[in-house]
Amino acid sequence: MIESRLPDFMTALPEIWLAGAAMLLLLIGVFRGNGGTRMVSWLAVVAIAVAFVMVAVSPAEREVTFAGMFVSDSFAKFAKELVLIGSAATIIMSLGYIRREGMERFEFPILILTATVGMMLMVSANDLIALYLGLELQSLSLYVLAAFKRDSLRSTEAGLKYFVLGALSSGMLLYGCSLIYGFTGTTNFDSLTTLFQGDAQAGIGLVFGIVFLIAGLAFKISAVPFHMWTPDVYEGATTPITAFFAAAPKVAAMSLFVRVLISPLVGVAAQWQQVIVAIAIASMLLGAFAAIRQTNIKRLMAYSSIGHMGFALVGLAAGTTDGAQSVMTYLAIYMVMNLGTFAAILAMKVKGEMVENVSDLSGLARTQPMLAFVLAVFMFSLAGIPPLAGFFAKFYVFKAAIDAGLFTLAIVGVLASVVGAFYYIRIIKVMYFDEPGDAFDLPVAGELRLVMTVTGLFTLLFVVFPTPILAWAQGAAAALIP
Amino acid sequence: MIYVLIVFLPALAAVLVGLLGRRLGDRASQLLTCLAVTASALLSLVVFFDIALGSGEPQRVQLLTWILSEELRVQWALYVDTLTAVMLVVVNVVSALVHWYSIGYMDHDPHKPRFMAYLSLFTFAMLMLVTADNLVQMFFGWEGVGLASYLLIGFWYEKPSANAAAIKAFVVNRVGDFGFALGIFGIFFVFGAVDFASIFQTAPNVAGKTWTFLGMQLDILTTLTMLLFVGAMGKSAQLFLHTWLPDAMEGPTPVSALIHAATMVTAGVFMVCRLSPVFEYAPDTLAVVTIIGASTAFFAATVGLVQNDIKRIVAYSTCSQLGYMFMAVGLSAYSAAMFHLFTHAFFKALLFLGSGAVIHALHDEQDIRRMGGLWSIMPLTGIMMWAGTLSLAGIPFFSGYYSKDLIVEVAFAGHGLVAQYAFWMALIGVFLTAFYSSRLMWMTFHGPARAEKSVMAHAHEPPLVMGIPLMILTLGAIAVGFFTHDYFTGHEMQEFWRESLLVLGDHDPIEAAHHAPLWFKFVPLGLAGAGIALSWYMYIRNPALPRRIAETNWPLYQFLLNKWYFDELYDLVFVRPARWLGRTLWKGGDGRIIDGFGPDGLAAMVGNLARRAGQAQTGYLYHYAFAMLIGIALIVTWFLVAG
Amino acid sequence: MIVQAIAFYLFAAIIIASAVMVIAARNPVHSVLFLILAFFNAAGLFVLVGAEFLAMIMVIVYVGAVAVLFLFVVMMLDINFVELRQGFLNYLPVGALIGLILMIELIFVLTAGTVTPVVPAATGAPIPAIGQVTNTEALGAVLYTRYIYLFQASGMILFVAMIGAIVLTLRSRDGVRRQDAGKQTGRTRAESVEVRKVAPGGGV
């Protein structure tokens, strides 16, 4: 009478593996002490690589398990692969940094692993409760990571702010979930999908629930007006963590956003579309304008990521499969550009100190031409200058928006990207045309060079080989609407 | 192939020397350009003998497709018939001689490669112009020569006056070019094509048709040809658009000889001749062309009487002779116009280059009041320049005689008021021309030496590299008319020109001119002789006389000396209002309105917004939480109100 | 039934009143005590709907652990709450306004909206009748089977919370004496006791 069958675990194998690996590595770390951090880090990278293989070989067909709460389809696969790449790159990039800054503790890679597990749960969520738990698992890890350098006032402040505001947003999210549950009687996405098929009209209460849900998710992707934590946290957190924040969690949260809105709620797109349009416009404009006066690179990158999430939302606002495809393409390109940019930022040191101000970059082109060139490529790409990858990312989202008839949105987006180009190109100007200041330390660590090379090549060559990414994203988007 | 070589050898030389001039060095640059243009000149002679004198058919060499857009089809093509062949010879021969001459003349200049590159660039553009088979390509060459002219007038860019002259030439030409461009648009609009073959084919069908513009019924072809003629006026420095030519003498003398005497300024004449199958159907335009040409011939001659700058005198004489050419064109005597263009190129280039030799010898002295007595020092130059002068004055058996006399006779034989006017103007012009050109010679070579002793001591005959081109030109000025008049305007005329010029059957002015009474042949000759004699009397025999005449007729003298006050008039009517308007628009319109709201205003707004967006980031948790709450409240409220 | 109704309104009224007092009380200790009162009444509500397991968990976890922890924190940390309230008062008008707007809107929604769509019952988990199994048994039966995913995910969250707490607060300070059982038992007589001859009248 009471159901007591065990569900199918194999569908969630990568997540289970990664969670187990995190615990195992924690044990190793505890026994080896902080001296084993490097080993734990590399083992974590290996664990992620194994998980990546598991994801990659898992079947592309849609599989649902755990009483319909967990789904594995090509959309989840795509997002998970991106997340895993982002996490692995972050761990690799942080190796040198955490040693230098005296924060070499083995919990660091472990927390990144748990955050990664959280993100994978998020993108595989097929139920509001699963969504919430995945989000919390990820967020909690991120709160700790933000405050990880506990002796630094700024870092702890960042962690605290992130935590408090995150709790507030979680509250909103939960409230939204409750309303949805209250007005529909289910938390399961599949049930919601069937519910909204046809010409279903969402009642006002349900719309409220959706709005609160969107607010909670918007916080995670730092869309305006739920972005306020971003600049402070980006600036306060240590640079590799900032890089992490800017890459994998954004991908995961945005994927979750796409899944929730396109898959179960696509039937009521007319209701949520206006909200997405509004926050997309606000994000793009704020990202463009507020960044202009920033002097701190990390803060600037924070506004940059706000703006970029606004652009990604443009694709989402289209509310179509094409839109979803453009968002996923955007995320892939965005993550690669950000990882590359942060690798370049991490590579710049003056007399052992990290470079944090834009003005410190002056004359980089003369002291380290290769580094300056790579950074210039990323800046041009972030600004959306053809033929670099960033241009195509923007191109596809705008195209999706125009195809959906959202002309105003597309026009505002283009204007915002013009304004935004100003501060990206200013960095290039500082690097190439200003008088050099103090010499930069050499040599750049091998791991960073690796990350920069791979991401730089991707950015440059996307124009030549766009098909794999596009086809991949298309498959992912197609999986959303059965 | 030969045609391509003719046109593109100078281009190649220009590009090479222009880009690599410093690497190549002065000597190599000079040789490269000179040899390229000389080769081009020799090939042109071959073409001339083949197509114009021989039996070669007109050639069309298709190079590339330029524009393909619906009806608009423009090709890059070289079209060579007799008309073009004549121009090829004129352009390339004079250009080659000027190139060589420049080696000597520009000996002390530090920017030789640049100069040579510009000269070759000009040659190329001029060749493109004369070989064009459609109006758009012609316009390309038209603008190309304009550009080269601008660059060369302003070659000594340290001199403010040279810069001003260059800009003036460019701007005045722009007025003409505007007309030309409008004419091309109109032709495309009416004919649906811009290549000559189609235009000529359709022109008879369009003749007499009218269109309505601003409520006026206008003859289509008259309108179009008037517009095209405005372009020709600008390029050929005809009255009202002539003001740039005298100022253009700020450029180096070889430039004046090449561009502002022999070739570019004749482009207008060439263009009208090329389009003779269209102009022939617009008699009203031809009348206007005649009047403008005759007036210019007279006007420029009067101004030339009192000028003291050796190059300006020659410049005004150029202006005047161009007037003769247009007069002939207007009277449908295209062959006469082309003939005069041909001979004029030789003797006018000779006069300019000779003046250049004098200027060179006297250390850049250009004022003829400080010359004189050079005959004993540089007799060879003197002889050569006398040859040019006599040719210009139309003394028999010199080249100028054949062409110029013919034009006067054409005017004499013409019917109607316009022809009458042209005839009288031409006659007076003959006298004035003889007077001022011989005045120049008397003042320069004869009489007492008025230059400073030290300068005179250093005066010398030009070096060989300058002398030989002069001699070749002298031969041309003396003999070329005698040998070619039969082909250009005589018995061989039909076989020579063939299809390249069109004169409608009912009036052949050349034929009429040949039937002028015998006694009339002596009238221009007498006037020319009188002019020379009078100037001898006034400047050699009785040097005080000119001053007395000037004082008794002071207002007239001032009027002429100030070139009929054209510059002042234009300054008052066009320049100042334009400058005022520009200033107002700049300060008020652009500065206050467009910059204020546009770039500056936007930039300020962006900065402002950026500051505010930054200020919102206070760092207080309260504020952040409130921002989120306010955000969600706004969205929810929006939904309640709107949804 | 009337008893139940009376009990419901009583509990509900007390919860709201004490929740207000949690915010309004000047003394933070009082705030926490009011919070405990609210928890107790919430547990009462759970009992009222037959969820006795939740009611007991409420009392044990929230009252017994969380609230008492709060109490300790409040009492042990020397925080000047009056100062904190300064800001609170500054922002009260704006906050109250937003709260009011949201509340009005929510009331509007809750009164206007009907619970529109009804999901097919099959998607929900079957709920056994109250009389047949106890709360505890029913929860236990699904917690490790149907909801094992959520259960384990929550476990992961707690795991991360634990790691986080340790990472952020645990410091190895010098000069802190710790008990080391191995060291204690491994001591020999030789290294701990020394026999000395003491000269009479000389001291050690």
Question: Any overview of this molecule?
Answer:
Chain A is about 75% helix and about 0% strand. Chain A has 20 helices and four strands. The model of chain B has no long low-confidence stretch (mean pLDDT about 85). In chain B, the strands form two sheets. Chain B has a two-stranded antiparallel sheet. A two-stranded antiparallel ribbon of chain B has the order 3-4. Chain B contains 28 helices and four strands. In chain C, helix 1 runs antiparallel to helix 2 and helix 2 runs antiparallel to helix 3. Chain C is extended and about 95 Å long. The chains are: A mainly alpha (about 475), B mainly alpha (about 650), C mainly alpha (about 200). Chains in contact: A-B, A-C, B-C. Chains A and B meet through helix 6, helix 8, helix 9 and helix 12 of A and helix 27 and helix 28 of B.
Overview in brief:
The complex is a heterotrimer of chains A (about 475), B (about 650) and C (about 200). Chain A is mostly helical.
Structure annotation, total helices of chain C: 8
What share of the residues of chain C does DSSP label as strand, in percent?
A: under 5%
Terminal CA distance of chain B: 77 Å
User: Into which percent range does the helicity of residues of chain C fall?
Assistant: 55-70%
Secondary-structure-based class of chain B equals: mainly alpha
Cα separation of the termini of chain C: 85 Å
Supply Rg of chain C. Answer: 28 Å
Annotation, overall tally of beta strands of chain C: 0
CATH superfamily of the domain at 1-81 in chain C: NADH-ubiquinone/plastoquinone oxidoreductase chain 6, subunit NuoJ
Mean pLDDT of chain B: 83
Query: Which class of secondary structure composition applies to the elements of chain C?
Result: mainly alpha
Shape of chain B: globular
Biggest interface, CB < 8 A: A-C, 54 and 43 residues
Tell me the number of strands of chain B: 4
Q: How much helicity do the residues of chain B have? A: over 70%
Over the alpha carbons, how many angstroms does the gyration radius of chain B reach?
29 Å
What's the CATH class label of the domain at 1-81 in chain C? Mainly Alpha
Which architecture of the domain at 1-81 in chain C does the CATH hierarchy give at level 2?
Up-down Bundle
